[in-house]
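Retro notes
What went well: the complex prediction finally ran end to end.
Inputs used:
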Amino acid sequence: MAGAKKGLVLLDFWVSPFGQRCRIALAEKGIPYEYSEQELLGAKSDLLLRSNPVHKKIPVLLHDGRPVCESLVILNYLEEAFPDASPKLLPADDAYARAQARFWAAYSDKVYEVGTRLWKLKGEPQAQARAEIVQVLRNLDGELGERSFFGGEAFGFVDVALVPFVPWLPSYERYGEFSVEGIAPRLAAWARRCAERDSVAKSFHPPEKVDEFINLLKKTYGIE
Amino acid sequence: MEKKSSENATPPVAAPLKLFGSWASSYTHRVQLALRLKGLEFEYVEEDLGNKSDELLRHNPVHKKVPVLVHGGRALPESVIILQYLDDAWPETRPLLPADAFDRALARFWCHFADDKLGPAVGAVFASTGEDQEAAVRQVHENLALLEVELRDGAFRGRRFFGGDEVGLLDVVLGCGSYWLAVFEDVTGVRLVDADAFPRFNAWLRDFEALDEVRETIPAVDRLLEYARGLRHMLLGLAGANAAAPSADAPTTAAAAPSAAAADIAVDI
């Protein structure tokens, strides 16, 4: 694309777990990029609107000016466009393991989707969200099993996809009146293990900041 | 459930393929079509969605849905994941995804669009009446317009199919589902896919539906019409019953519309 900025630019928003997925993958693979904080609660930039006209959302990864949108699409893209960057997050030779990784990475979206309903809704719909998120976390705990990571011995695709929701869990625990340690202890241990990784620690914001952000959203949308 | 390393290995390509599906499910059609395009033999098991088999529930305990493809005893749920698996396991045979990483990203992005935006919007048209339906129809038109732009000026300009000269992943995903547009038009009386407003989308759909493998896969239109009429009748009956009830909850069968609205509010992040 003529005149386009060379290299990688990540259009992102500080607290976005979807953006963090991309930041963590880029850090794990040692791929250099420029981080571009976007204004989301005010007017969105022309660059963002041009790069993702369909959804107008971050994250967007611009590669030599060409936009790749959606966090999981970006994760797959990084695997495929930078084949020499290591580690590989998806198992290279095992089609079935790749399919399982894609399944659980997509499933991890549910933590955020259901968690959002948990803090937004009241009464019966909130109770339903609580029951659902407990089930989701139990399913993830079961899938992890006794392994160190969803990727097995190594931090992989599903780990990158899921770990950004960890700082949101304390808020969900409060709204849902449950504890991750209680219902999904292996997942809780996994969360602590992941937080020790440089790539993860550097992209995380403390749960208090996340909670503050949830309160800001509630105010913005007139939710009590 | 403990994982043994041997359970994770990909089955040998010669291992049998068994597809659990439902005759009216476009997600099932996607997998049937992909298997046919790849020339792969498979056993098909029709599931009664009102009374799911133990075998299906064992193979897809998380979502309990069709389609599920079982290859050499190992279960793969979720149509778009199954299609990518077929490419990974049979890389030499008629690839569904393009070779280039950026083109692959585009295909995946628009597959998500089909499932997260267009599909639910079409479903909302079908499950509603009056003003709600008008709003849902506008949503469908907006979504189709986005695809039309890509076909006209954007990522897919000049192509016969989204995959290029031959159908690919996105054609299979969008195509298996787009036949509902004409069916729903007939059953609800609304205009969804105007040939004047969406000429390229219409041309693509016509070319897609003319393919042999597609004709083998998509059920006869009169069966689809009968099915849709029955479903519409039931949905409107339920909607009427719930409108009389004091509860603010929407009918569970029209769940797509309320949950889409709920997801929209929070989070542009």
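What we learned: Chain B is about 60% helix and 5% strand.
What to try next: split runs per interface for comparison.
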